[in-house]
Design brief:
single chain, mainly alpha
């Protein structure tokens, strides 16, 4: 049985390194990325009017972000079958992409008590204030 794995030893080593790398990246980059989010990110705000000359640049950046996000989603699906951070990689890809309903998905995820507590804990360790969430029916607290 082990002999059949020896044939694919280099691929298995590569997959193991990919898995270990994704865990390390999640461990170090997630708190850093969470600290970059503005505390007011989830509060409603007025739309910013952009000058017309930046439309092509914005379109290119949006396309690249969506490609990178799609690549992360595909990698996350692969990591679901391997040891690694598959779900975290899928979520990172989805949050990087732009699609209809993204904002409500982000709010639903961050409103989960354990998620909000973890995010605010990571932000506090980097000297950032807690996220401020908009009130919704049945709640009078902006953030916890």
């Amino acid at each position: 049985m082990i002999d059949c794995f020896r044939e694919y030893e280099s691929i298995l080593v590569l997959l193991g390194l990919l898995s270990a790398g994704s865990v390390a990246m999640a461990f170090f980059l997630a708190p850093w990325a969470l600290s970059l989010i503005s505390a007011e990110y989830f509060l409603p705000h007025d739309r910013v009017v952009r000058p017309p000359g930046l439309q092509l640049r914005r379109f290119v950046i949006l396309g690249l972000r969506n490609l990178l996000g799609a690549a992360l989603v595909i990698l996350g699906v692969v990591l679901l079958a391997l040891p690694g951070q598959g779900l975290l990689t899928i979520f990172a890809g989805l949050l990087l992409m732009s699609f209809p309903g993204k904002r409500s998905l982000e709010l639903r995820l961050v409103r989960l008590p354990f998620v909000l507590k973890s995010v605010n804990w990571a932000r506090a360790r980097r000297g950032r204030g807690p996220l401020q969430l908009p009130c919704f029916e049945g709640s009078h607290k902006a953030s916890e």
